[in-house]
Automatic annotation (TrEMBL):
Function: Negative regulator of class I heat shock genes (grpE-dnaK-dnaJ and groELS operons). Prevents heat-shock induction of these operons.
Biological processes per GO annotation: negative regulation of DNA-templated transcription
Similarity remark: Belongs to the HrcA family.
Entry-linked NCBIfam families: hrcA
PANTHER family: HEAT-INDUCIBLE TRANSCRIPTION REPRESSOR HRCA (PTHR34824)
Protein species of origin: Wenxinia saemankumensis
Protein name, UniProt field: Heat-inducible transcription repressor HrcA
C-alpha cells in the first residue's frame, strides 16, 4: 500500500476509465471485474493485456485489490473513497421512492417517536438496507454533565437537563484522555452550564478559548521581545514556547513564565473540552463513511450514508442514514437519505411544539 493515495488528476484518461468501470461493475454485482469484461465495455478498442497492465498499475497505487490470484479486481477502501469523492454520479430521486417516503409519513398527527419509527421502516424498505434514525436532541438548559470512560477510544456523556430529562451518548474522545481528564472536563462544563443549552455551551467554551488565547499572546509577546523565549510551531495545536537559555531566566520574571505555563495548560484543557462538545454535537450535510472510516462498523466491511436534519431554528437536532455493505449504490442512496432528512426536518419544524 503506498504512503499516499493518488488523486484523479494523477490518472490518465485510460486509467481513469478503467478505474471507474471496475468500481461501477463491483458496485453493481459485488463481484471482481476482469480484463475481458472491460475490453467489451471500454469506449476505445484495447487488448485484454493492456487492460491488465492498467489494472496492475491501479493496484500498485492502492486503488484496486485482487481477492484471488487469478480473479479480477475490486476497489479498495481508498479506491471507493476516491470514486465517491470524484467520480460518483448522484441520480435524481426516483418518483416511486419519493412517493413511498411521503406516504409513510402521511398527513396525520401522532407523536414524533412514532413518526421516526415509520420513517425508519420506509427508509429501510426503499433502500433495502438497515436504516438509522437519531431522534431530536433535547434543547432544554443543562443542569449537569458527566463523562464516563468506557475504554481507550470510547466514552459516555451523561446530560442532565433542567426539566429532569436525562440523555446518554457514546462518543470517541480526543486521543490521550484519561478518566481524570474526563472528570476535569465534566466539572468545568457543569460549573458554566447552568441555563445553557448544549449548543449555547459550545459557544461559551469557544469564547473561553479565545480569551485565554489573547492572554497568552500578550504575555508571550513581551517575553519574545526580551529574547527570553521563542515560539515553535506557532498557531498550531503543537505550538510551544522554548526558553532560549537558562542565563536569560536570571533577568526574566519567573512569575510570567509560570503564568504562561498555566495558560498553556488551561488552553489545552479547554481545547479538549471543545473537542468533546463538537464530537457530541455531530456534523452537517450528507456524509459517506466507508469501512474503517466509520468507527461503529469498521470490522464489518460496511458503509454508512447519513444526513442530519434541522428544526425551525436551523439547528441540527437529529440524523437519518442507511447502513449497508461497502458496495452500496451510493448514487441512488445519497438523494434518498438527503430527501428523507429534509422531509423529517420539515415535519419536526411543523410540530416543534410537540416533541416528546
Amino acid at each position: 500500500m503506498p504512503d499516499r493515495i493518488p488523486d484523479l488528476d494523477s490518472l490518465n484518461d485510460r486509467s481513469r476509465e478503467v478505474f471507474r468501470r471496475v468500481v461501477e461493475g463491483y458496485l453493481a454485482t459485488g463481484a471482481p471485474v476482469g480484463s475481458r469484461t472491460l475490453t467489451r465495455a471500454l469506449s476505445e478498442s484495447v487488448s485484454a493485456a493492456t487492460i491488465r497492465n492498467v489494472m496492475q498499475d491501479l493496484e500498485l497505487m492502492g486503488l484496486l485489490g485482487s481477492p484471488h490470484v487469478s480473479a479480477g479486481r475490486v476497489p479498495t477502501q481508498a479506491g471507493l473513497r476516491l470514486f465517491v469523492d470524484g467520480l460518483l454520479e448522484v441520480s435524481d430521486l426516483d418518483g416511486t421512492d419519493r412517493a413511498m417516503l411521503d406516504d409513510t409519513v402521511g398527513p396525520g398527527g401522532g407523536d414524533i417517536g412514532g413518526l421516526l419509527d415509520r420513517v425508519g421502516q420506509a427508509l429501510s424498505g426503499v433502500t433495502r438496507g438497515a436504516s438509522l434514525v437519531l431522534a431530536p436532541k433535547h434543547e432544554a438548559p443543562i443542569r449537569h454533565i458527566e463523562f464516563v470512560s468506557l475504554g481507550p477510544d470510547r466514552a459516555l456523556v451523561v446530560l442532565v437537563f433542567a426539566d429532569g430529562h436525562v440523555e446518554n451518548r457514546v462518543f470517541v474522545p480526543p486521543p490521550g484522555q484519561t478518566p481524570s481528564s474526563l472528570r476535569e472536563a465534566a466539572n468545568f462544563l457543569s460549573a458554566i452550564a447552568e441555563g445553557q443549552t448544549l449548543s449555547e455551551l459550545a459557544d461559551v467554551v469557544k469564547r473561553e478559548i479565545a480569551t485565554r488565547r489573547q492572554e497568552l499572546d500578550s504575555l508571550a509577546a513581551e517575553m519574545v521581545e526580551q529574547g527570553i523565549v521563542t515560539w515553535v510551531n506557532r498557531g498550531t495545536s503543537n505550538e510551544r514556547l522554548i526558553v532560549r537559555g537558562r542565563g536569560n531566566l536570571l533577568g526574566g520574571d519567573e512569575t510570567d513564565l509560570d503564568r504562561i505555563r498555566s495558560l498553556f495548560d488551561d488552553l489545552e484543557r479547554k481545547r479538549d473540552i471543545a473537542d468533546f462538545l463538537e464530537l457530541t454535537e455531530g456534523g452537517e450535510g450528507v456524509r459517506i463513511f466507508i469501512g474503517s472510516e466509520n468507527k461503529l462498523f469498521s470490522l464489518s466491511g460496511s458503509s454508512l450514508v447519513v444526513s442530519p436534519y434541522m428544526n425551525a431554528d436551523r439547528r441540527i437536532v437529529g440524523a437519518v442514514g442507511v447502513i449497508g455493505p461497502t458496495r452500496l449504490n451510493y448514487g441512488r442512496i445519497v438523494p434518498i437519505v438527503d430527501y428523507t432528512a429534509q422531509l423529517v426536518g420539515r415535519l419536526i419544524a411543523d410540530r416543534s411544539g410537540g416533541l416528546d
